């Protein structure tokens, strides 16, 4: 029997700022978001974790961050990741020769902090700036996923092949085109209309933009538009119109 068209709408960057937190929770309560991934290395992560009981149907995974953020472990213990500057590179292109043991240590520390903050394991793993498209980072996430039986985001065709080869659960399809100038209602409706049978993840970044986000991210004001689109009546109607079943990573393979 076909599982039908299962839809995960995952909001990245939960925990980065209070404005992001409130935007994601609103996009879940009043819109399409079924899942989010928590960045544990920011003060607002504690506030996000403290509110999760208000949203029992929201799946929450770990957004492993090795770029553009402070490390959880002391920078001097991660020389191949932090370099002479003592901080992670801004983008994955800066992960030139990451030491596998350092990547795994930092990813494990972020997972441990997630459990400490939330009192539970994440529903799944993904990565900031899709850094697990790098084979060394992917190896670390696969190690953690195998230890805890967790799915990983299907961030590219190559990543999807690797995950399936290693027996790690992942979605059939991953959509990242709802972003930037394409974070529009017509684009989202077109995406939803094109979803095929199986499990599809659509990535998004809703937020109420605050000063902290504006000062630390190049992707800020567009997040307000994402929130508006994700909570629009037309988007909600499209889910019903196209026969989509909303799920998250913790429920997609259990029904």
Can you give a write-up of this model?
The protein contains ten helices and seven strands. Helix 1 packs parallel to helix 9, helix 4 crosses helix 5 and helix 7 runs parallel beside helix 10. Strands 1, 2, 3, 4, 5, 6 and 7 form a seven-stranded parallel beta sheet that branches. The protein has 255 residues and is α/β, with parallel strands linked by helices. Helix 1 links the parallel strand 1 and strand 2.
How would you classify the quaternary structure?
Answer: single chain
Indicate the radius of gyration in whole angstroms.
17 Å
Instruction: Name the structural class.
Output: alpha/beta
Average pLDDT confidence is 96
How would the global form be characterised? Answer: globular
Question: Helical amount among residues, as a percent range?
Answer: 25-40%
Flag low-confidence runs. none
Number of helical segments with 4 or more residues: 10
What is the helix/strand order? EHEHEHHEHHEHEHHHE
Total number of β-strand segments? 7
Q: Main beta sheet: strand number and arrangement? A: 7 strands, parallel
